Amino acid sequence: MSEEAKKQYSADSIQALEGMEHVRMRPSMYIGDVGPRGLHHLVYEVVDNSIDEALAGHCDTIHVTINEDNSITVEDNGRGIPVDLHKKEGISALEVVMTKIGAGGKFDKDSYKVSGGLHGVGVSCVNALSEHLKATVYREGKIWEQEYERGKSMYPVKPIGETEKRGTTVTFKPDPIIFTQTLEYSYDTLASRMRELSFLNKGITISLTDRRHKNKDGEFEGETFFSEEGLKEFVRFLDGNREPLMQEVIFFEGEKNDIPVEVAMIYNTSYAENLHSYVNNINTHEGGTHLSGFRRGLTNTLKKYADSSGMTDKLKFEIAGDDFREGLTAIISVKVAEPQFEGQTKTKLGNREVSASVSQAVSEMLTDYLEEHPDDAKIIVQKVILAAQARHAAQKAREMVQRKTVMSIGGLPGKLSDCSEQDPAKCEVFLVEGDSAGGTAKQGRDRNFQAILPLRGKILNVEKAMQHKVFENEEIRNIFTALGVTIGTEEDSKALNLSKLRYHKIVIMCDADIDGSHIATLILTFFFRYMRELIENGHVYIATPPLYLVKKGNKKQYAWTDKERDEISEQFGGSANIQRYKGLGEMNADQLWDTTMNPEFRTLRKVNIENGGEADRIFSMLMGDEVPPRREFIEKNAIYANIDA
Ligand code: 0RA
Any idea where the domains of the chain sit in the sequence? Predict the structure, then answer.
């Protein structure tokens, strides 16, 4: 390097550092949080760069490895990140990509970056938040390498050998100074995202290897994901536990005003609406303009078709938007050059122009589809008519709920033992299985801020019930009124109104056995289908009562697992008296308070939906008609596996 170049090199390094330092100072601004979620986002960010290279047509295979030390390696067979001098920056392009915030891979002006992590921040962020990162580039016959410590390059990019290969390999180890909560990668979380990416980007092979664990045959655990049919397969995967109404998944793709739109959908015998939407491979949990465009396109097209078919002539009321989506499972995936994300979790697409594009694209393509598939078209219209009739009945039932609400004393259900605090942010309500446990909880609670709502045994399985049955159900009506949540507006019969939510913590408290977890799952299913925003906004929790009380002399301690039980017993010098709690009812009020309700000592598990598709599949499996997969799942007692992080 010349003196001049050296000066430039260090000047640029300093400037780059400022951006990188900022990432380290405010990591959450860039990756959302520094808990397990942020930790996993680092992987997605790196993989997204390889996906972009694949979408540009230069790469078809991506290998992701969880190494023994919980570092991650992402390897692709793309063109390799350029290593030549970046004219403006005066350093290797590779170093620019790795150390400049916002540099991304935007050399190619023609190929807009379509994928991108939740915040689309680029691999330099990952570098800044890693205690060590190594980038290796295989390109034009040579191997190049550069390493970094906490985002600072350790030496200029150097050639280290020759190769026939092409591609980029990045290995990074998240920085323990930043990720203080955990550094441990979850295989399942990564696998579910890699599977999702393979469905969203058909034709790309994505493998995941876990070098921390070997299977029986002495091989590392892992899976390879590849989808030939993309979204079509994704829909079949999501609906694996439901009964389809048609043989083939409806699929169409096209482009409108430079926005690529892909839709796969099928109707099934259930009453649930299952829409999953993606923008640039990001799951838009909160929906947005693309989703409303899809809804409008679907409604208009089906309405037109139904009217012209004459099948709806005898109907005495209007068909509503919802009716077109009952029993519909659909995935809509769009690519937007400059997406604007809004909403609580920044997963709602805000770009106004997208709505009309998607709506037009869907209308045109669905109209063609219906013309060409009259049998499917007929099935859909029949399903829609049934849905409209059921909704009509449901509306009557709902009006009854509202009237009852006004009539009962103070508007609250008689079974609710309310708390005295008035500020919802400070209030908690425990939904407790059974009247007897409800009684204990009522005695044990702190009545200042804790309310108790006992629920009778098994609550209704909403996955299998029609909407009007759900609204007629007394337990469910009690939940609505106790929480202060109302549902339904003129335009949208399922719109939630959370503005009068009476408790910011809603705690499901059930026995720590199979029955208890089944009941917890029923309640969760209800929240998932009818009050999903409560979960999304982080209001829903699961209490964790202990399994054992270990006693010896005047020493006693609770245990939540068999291992804990044995350890405590040993601490007590062995031969301790062990009481197994078969249910909440066996605990007295003090014990319940000490172990499960007292904010100082309890553990509440917050329910969150990391992956809507996965949660949807699990609920439809747990609560649907097919018994064997449900039994197997419950027996493995991993009920909350992918629902609760
Ligand atoms: C921009 C230009 C070129 C390659 C890439 C980006 C690239 C970036 C990443 C990140 C991970 N893997 C990647 N593979 C490629 C190459 C342009 C050219 O060769 O003309």
Answer: 3-225, 231-390, 408-545+584-609, 548-580
Q: How far apart are CA 226 and CA 465, in angstroms?
A: 36
Determine the CATH number of domain 3-225: 3.30.565.10
pLDDT tier for residue 601 given thresholds of 50, 70 and 90: confident
Q: H-type helices in 467-561, by residue range?
A: 467-472, 474-483, 514-530, 532-536
pLDDT in tens, 176-218: 999 999 999 999 999 999 999 999 999 999 999 999 999 889 9
Where do runs of H (alpha helix) occur along 142-230? 187-200
Residue 83 CA, ligand 1 centroid: distance in Å: 10
Q: Which fold has domain 231-390?
A: Ribosomal Protein S5; domain 2 (3.30.230)
Residues with C-beta less than 6 Å from any ligand 1 atom: 49-50, 53, 76, 78-79, 81-82, 105, 107-108, 168
Instruction: Label the pairing between strands 142-149 and 152-153.
Output: antiparallel
Ligand 1 atom at shortest distance from the alpha carbon of 107: 1
What CATH number does domain 408-545+584-609 carry, 3.40.50.970, 1.10.760.10, 3.40.50.670, 3.40.47.10? Answer: 3.40.50.670
Q: What secondary structure letter does DSSP report for 485? A: -
616 is catalytic: no
Rounded alpha-carbon distances, angstroms, from residue 390 to 291, 296, 317, 403, 466: 24, 22, 12, 20, 7
Q: For position 631, what pLDDT does the model report?
A: 54
Q: What tens digit of pLDDT does each residue of 417-427 get? A: 999 999 999 99
Which comes out higher in pLDDT, residue 637 or 553? 553
SS3 of the chain: helix, strand, coil, percent, to 5:
40, 20, 35
Mean pLDDT of the chain: 87
Q: Are the beta carbons of 97 and 123 closer than 8 angstroms?
A: yes
pLDDT digits (tens, 9 = 90+) for 408-466: 445 788 889 999 999 999 999 999 988 888 999 999 999 999 999 999 866 888 888 88
In the annotation, is 433 catalytic?
yes
- Cα atoms in the Cβ-side hemisphere of radius 13 Å centred on 417: 21
> How many angstroms separate the CA atoms of 47 and 197, rounded?
10
Q: Using CA positions, which residue lies closest to atom 7 of ligand 1?
A: 81
- In the reported structure, the alpha carbon of residue 300 is separated from the centroid of ligand 1 by a whole-number distance in angstroms of 43
The proportion of the chain whose per-residue pLDDT surpasses 90, expressed as a percent, equals 60
pLDDT at 644: 34
